[in-house]
Amino acid sequence: MSTLIIKNLYAEVDGKEILKGVDLEISGGQTHAIMGPNGTGKSTLASVIMGHPRYTVTKGTITLDGEDVLEMEVDERARAGLFLGMQHPAEVPGVTNSDFIKTAMNSRLEEGKSVNLFKFIRQLDKAVEDLRMNDDLPHRYLNEGFSGGEKKRNEVLQMKMLSPKIAILDEIDSGLDIDALKVVGENVTNMKSEDLGLLLITHYQRLLDYISADKVHVMMKGRIVKSGGMEIIKRIDSEGYDWIKQEVGIDDVRVIEEEEEARVMLGQCATREALDL
Ligand code: ADP
Ligand code: MG
């Protein structure tokens, strides 16, 4: 059983502070959910845990079973057992889905060892069937031309194949119709075990109808402002977030306010133009 501990985490992007003191502890066998309106820092937290180079941690710690995660490169984090199912998975033309997964699995083994090809294919076929994906998806370029729902299922496919110790699924429900949501929910639920700690990020309560959570956290303004059980979700579902905003005395839940957000975006466009991207 593994434990991920995040303490007083602060992080910034382009000099803007996005995470403002996040505390969270996830162990194998547990499922945590982070909810919260858009722009409150949920995906940023996921990216920072995985080590996305755009984000700078300015304060706080992240450890996995006592090891300093912030000291690890992205690939080391993956090898240590961290996994992120992304909100917006990138398209990688030229690399097939199946090759991508195989490479990721091999990189977790000792130098010189590789996965048994026969077993790999059998496992992949089974996972594709379990997720009711199209047979051709493993052989197509990673995420290229995948529908929104296919991309999401594909993140879960990777998770099934990689058996992480701690898995973060960021808005895995967005873009899924109700049937697909059911399939994804069943598959994730079947993966639950003492060896897996799950963090589900979502802003819809409906995901949690399919994957139950032991603990629910609400994120606003770059930190977790409330934690509790499923009762929080029920109340958010019927009343929205206003009661929590009132409870913690927050007006605008976003980390960056609208005007500022526009300036950051303009800054990015200007940078892109300057770099001729
Ligand atoms: P959520 O997932 O809760 O919707 P995010 O973590 O995606 O929120 O974003 C929180 C804030 O941080 C937003 O204002 C967003 O624009 C900003 N932000 C996140 N990542 C970046 C980035 N790479 N560049 C600029 N701003 C970013
Ligand atoms: Mg997000």
Distance between the termini: 44 Å
Q: Based on the coordinates given, report the CATH architecture.
A: 3-Layer(aba) Sandwich
Alpha plus pi helix count: 10
The overall pLDDT, averaged over residues, is 91
In N-to-C order, the SSE pattern is EEEHEEHEEHHEHEHEHEEHHH
Biggest sheet features: 6 strands, mixed
CATH topology: Rossmann fold
- Strand tally: 12
Identify the CATH homologous superfamily: P-loop containing nucleotide triphosphate hydrolases
List the keywords.
10 helices, binds magnesium ion, 12 strands, 277 residues, alpha/beta, Rossmann fold, six-stranded mixed sheet, four-stranded antiparallel sheet, binds adenosine-5'-diphosphate
Layout: helices, strands, pairs:
Layout: E1 3-13, E2 16-27, E3 31-35, H1 42-50, E4 56-64, E5 67-68, H2 74-80, E6 82-85, E7 92-96, H3 97-107, H4 117-130, E8 141-142, H5 148-162, E9 166-170, H6 178-191, E10 197-201, H7 207-210, E11 215-220, E12 223-228, H8 230-239, H9 242-248, H10 258-275
Parallel strand pairs: 3-10, 3-11, 6-9, 9-10
Antiparallel strand pairs: 1-2, 1-4, 4-5, 7-8, 11-12
Magnesium ion binds at residues 42-43, 87, 171.
Describe the structure.
The chain is of the alpha/beta class and 277 residues long. Helices cover 39% and strands 26% of the residues. The chain has a single domain (3-91, 164-275), classed as 3-Layer(aba) Sandwich (Rossmann fold), CATH 3.40.50. Strand 11 (215-220) and strand 12 (223-228) form a beta hairpin. Residues 13-14, 18, 36, 38-44, 54, 254-256, 261, 264 line the site of adenosine-5'-diphosphate.
